[in-house]
Amino acid sequence: MTFLSATLSRVKPSPTIAVTTKAAELKAAGRDVIGLGAGEPDFDTPQNIKDAAVAAIAAGKTKYTAVDGIPELKAAICAKLKRDNGLDYAPNQVSVGTGGKQILYNALMATLNPGDEVVIPAPYWVSYPDMVLLAGGEPVIAAASLETNFKLTPEQLEAAITPKTKWLIFNSPSNPTGAGYSREELKALTDVLMRHPHVWVMTDDMYEHLAYDDFEFCTPAEVEPALYGRTLTCNGVSKAYAMTGWRIGYAAGPVEVIAAMRKIQSQSTSNPCSVSQWAAIEALNGPQDFLPTNNEVFKRRRDLVVSMLSDIDGVTCPVPEGAFYVYPSISGLIGKTTPNGTVIENDEAFATALLEEADVAVVFGAAFGLSPNFRVSYATSDEALKTACTRIQKFCASLT
């Protein structure tokens, strides 16, 4: 009999963390590895936000706080949701957690019973299915395709829903593809949900402000107000505000769900870092003028990566609407062999060989539920991206 919980047999470690860890180990060993695995902006946290944290420390705001967020931060979140999304929430409808991941985990733990199903469009963020499994639920994967630019169709959503469905997890712009749903595309999905009143929607809006060209972000409860009562709108300050390490995520939704999430958090981590909460207030309430500036940088990097990867025979790289990822298909490379004799049987073999033979770390597509692909994060310098993409081009050209 094993000492460990049987629940752990249902889940696996995060592949994105594994790739980042492996790349760091090789760098430490002296290899010139370029890591394109981590979804983390290379920009520093804006100075006004750091100043707010320093001021909070100086003022002694370093004690325990309310379990799921200080009133001032909940007020700032309510103001943000009204300002940016046209959604009205009261402070008792808001939960603040230690990053967006904890918010999603708390919600699933608080609502799922054994046998409950959660529809997850693929490609998906690696943690969605495993969090569902940890909470005792069953992930139902609805696979999109390159032909629809990795976006779920209404017909696919309809086919995935059963009487056991409790949630749809919806992420736009997407990690790992960067695909963003237009208002019309999202309305077609919410029309399906309106026909199934037992299904709730959990939105992951973490990449809301990272939108390019003429793409305009929208969120389900904004597009279909009738879904407001069964929507949990989730977001955070990690990506747009370059605050990944500060660990602040939040959700807004029905009072009873928020109260249940608070109960989970009260018996697990308790409150998020007090100093980070005060910094997040400044992020949400302070100047937002740096966002378009940062987006121009991300857009330039996107175009660079898409252009260089699209030049590779056997690789197809769609242009994403948002986030800071591309998700190229390598269907034309499957079955080929590397100079070291490795057969590219699948995208995991491709990513492994790319790291070992070309010193570039990417995440293989199977980790996100759709193959044969790989994810590149372009949230790093132009120089690193040019060098990495040149290495990928040479590696692919060397395959026979």
From TrEMBL:
Domain Aminotransferase class I/classII large: from-to ranges: 32-392
UniProt keywords, alphabetically: Aminotransferase, Pyridoxal phosphate, Transferase
EC number: 2.6.1.-
Needed co-factor(s): pyridoxal 5'-phosphate
GO terms, biological process: amino acid metabolic process
Catalytic activity as recorded in UniProt: L-aspartate + 2-oxoglutarate = oxaloacetate + L-glutamate
Pfam families hit by this protein: Aminotran_1_2
Domain of life, per lineage: Bacteria
Gene Ontology terms, MF aspect: L-aspartate:2-oxoglutarate aminotransferase activity; pyridoxal phosphate binding
Family: Belongs to the class-I pyridoxal-phosphate-dependent aminotransferase family.
Complex and partners: Homodimer.
Name recorded for this polypeptide: Aminotransferase
Organism of derivation: Shimia thalassica
